[in-house]
Amino acid sequence: MEGKILAENLELGKSIKLGENVIIQGKDVRIEDNTSVGNGTIIQAQKITIGFGSTIEENCRIRKVSGQMEEFTLGDNCFVGHDSKIAVPVFKTGDYVSLNNHLFVNGVKPCVIGHNVWIGQNCILNSRDDLTIGNGVGIGTYSCVWTHGAHGELLEGCTIYKVAPVTIEDDVWIVGSYNVISPGVRLGKKSVILTGSVVTKDVAPCSCVGGNPARDLTDKLRPYKELTIDEKYAMMRRFMEEFVCSKEGMIRTENGWRVGKGKNEYEIVFLERVDDKSQQKDTVRIIFTKKNMTEGSYRNTTIFDLSTKTYTKTRTFAEIAVIKSLLYAKARFVPQTRS
Description:
CATH superfamily of the largest domain: Hexapeptide repeat proteins
CATH architecture of the largest domain: 3 Solenoid
Number of helices: 2
Oligomer: single chain
Radius of gyration: 22 Å
Largest sheet: 16 strands, parallel
């Protein structure tokens, strides 16, 4: 049996691949270009969005135990590994999110995930209360994030009971395997949780904790150091030097490189400042800059701004290739939003 889509309002892009026995059912369904859903996967929600270039592997179950989810939204160029189960009322991700096999997401409140997130295999994300995961977060395999601790019988006097939201801020790294994040915890931006930790209280930004229960180890291992914009600019140029070395037809230019041939040709350019006067409308270009001062939008040009860590999203093949070469450890940018 081939896959089928059941929807009142349906928007389908190009080059969509549905495996055998796939069922996608909802009121409003939008599936963008170059997406793939593997054999035996079932998705049921009132609103379903599968972003450009995303893949959902075989035998996934994305639905509530009873009734339909309210919303399932997967951003562009995302990945959901095989045999994953998502059973929450609302599940939303940004772009370039990798959710590896046998992920289990359950609960009665929304689970919202940002851009550039990597979650290892066999993880549990629980949203009995709100679970919010920021941009650039990494969660190691076999780890659990809990918004509730509730099983002992209250009528018999059990004193252990907690239901509270969990927030994991941008660029948190939960290292390795077998970590447990407890209900009500906030993990601060750029904090690092060492492998095998049980986190029972808030973790400050840019700090490092480890152990059971986790304790502050920042004096022994400081996770981040300050870099100037000039240092970031030079480092990004080294990253791109590595990237272009293996590309066909690479030619050095005054400010970067020209890569590929024919329809696959594009430029990578480094400019300290970018404005509308410096733009070209027809050439596929990747620009890295210390400051993006453009006001217009350019269909074939992606501008990566190192000062804001944002990029102007165009979905060109060059943009996707460059972003994938940087993820997840080298550099993570989020799409620029303009009012």
